[in-house]
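[Discussion] Sanity-checking designs against the backbone

I'm trying to build intuition for which residues belong where. Below is a structure token string of 318 positions. I'd appreciate it if someone posts a full sequence so I can compare it with mine line by line.
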């Protein structure tokens, strides 16, 4: 179909560093969903590649050490496959991304645990981080976690303000309702939820209320539909289930505020992906089903990639 596809959430470094025998250039092994070969087969043009190093997760070192190791792993990957994958450094680089062309990556830090002081944020921006989620599930110095339910700490407010100054986009996925609200109070600009679904379709603490979805759209952001079974539904979970979440969010705020944030291979296997999705190469199947269900070409193009491209135009420096 030739859609420009953007996947707004892939834990590439974390998944590949967990298993050093895996070769990212080769098709993904059975049960895993991520590889450069599969991304190219699926026509992916841009991937938000995470730095995932919350305290106690993603590696044995400190969060900062783990995050640095992941950045070095990405550097090495880009060096080895320079003709196939590159880091997006400016808005202009987006024009190089097209179906079948080289894949552009932008870093998303999932949990700001690696950042030790507000001053250090700039150093991560220099390394390509353009989107930061203040916390993953566990609390850190910036933000409460899902267990204690609290919002941003005073340091967290300062970090969000610094993000605003440096043009870094806050990612609201994984935040408690209190933290979600405090980010919106501390930040005037664009926000996203890189990988979350609609709580009205499937009640889960990782999914967003209708009010939260509207608040994200009011900031011209988007919600990335996540393809992890527990966040999609109960019982049979297939592409139709995915479409129910898309339908709901499009019904609330329109296709400009919906994207994909698959999270495929994010610490889970393809058994936890919906039926019909076995790797990132299957992402176009979502577009095919949307078209069959009556979505316009324009709406499908936005949901599969153009909405993320609009956000990235704002998130990348000129
Ligand atoms: Zn996540």
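Best answer:
Here's mine. Compare freely.
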């Amino acid at each position: 179909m030739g859609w420009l596809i953007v996947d707004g959430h892939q834990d590439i470094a974390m998944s590949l560093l967990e298993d050093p025998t895996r070769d990212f250039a080769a098709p993904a092994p059975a049960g895993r969903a991520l590889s450069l070969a599969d991304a190219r087969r699926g026509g992916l043009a841009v991937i938000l590649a995470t730095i995932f190093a919350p305290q106690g997760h993603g590696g044995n070192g400190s969060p900062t050490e783990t995050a640095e190791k992941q950045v070095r792993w990405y550097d090495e990957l880009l060096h080895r496959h320079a003709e196939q994958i590159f880091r997006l450094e400016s808005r202009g680089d987006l024009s190089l991304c097209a179906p079948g062309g080289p894949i552009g990556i932008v870093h998303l830090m999932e949990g700001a645990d690696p950042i030790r002081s507000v001053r250090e944020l700039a150093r991560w921006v220099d390394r390509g981080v353009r989107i930061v989620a203040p916390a993953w599930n566990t609390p850190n110095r910036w933000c409460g976690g899902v267990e204690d339910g609290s919002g941003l700490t005073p340091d967290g407010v300062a970090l969000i303000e610094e993000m605003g100054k440096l043009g870094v986009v806050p990612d609201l996925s994984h935040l408690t309702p209190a933290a979600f609200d405090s980010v919106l109070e501390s930040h005037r600009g664009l926000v996203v939820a890189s990988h979350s679904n609609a709580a009205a379709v499937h009640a889960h603490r990782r999914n967003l209320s209708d009010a939260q979805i509207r608040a994200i759209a009011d900031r011209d952001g988007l919600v990335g539909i996540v393809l992890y079974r527990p966040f999609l539904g109960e019982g049979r979970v297939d592409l139709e289930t995915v479409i129910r979440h898309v339908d709901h969010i499009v019904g609330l705020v329109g296709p400009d505020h919906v994207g994909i944030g698959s999270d495929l291979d994010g610490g889970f296997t393809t058994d936890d992906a919906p039926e019909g999705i076995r790797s990132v190469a299957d992402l176009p199947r979502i577009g095919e089903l949307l078209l069959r269900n009556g979505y316009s070409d324009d709406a499908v193009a936005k949901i599969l990639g153009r909405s993320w491209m609009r956000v990235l135009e704002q998130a990348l420096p000129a």
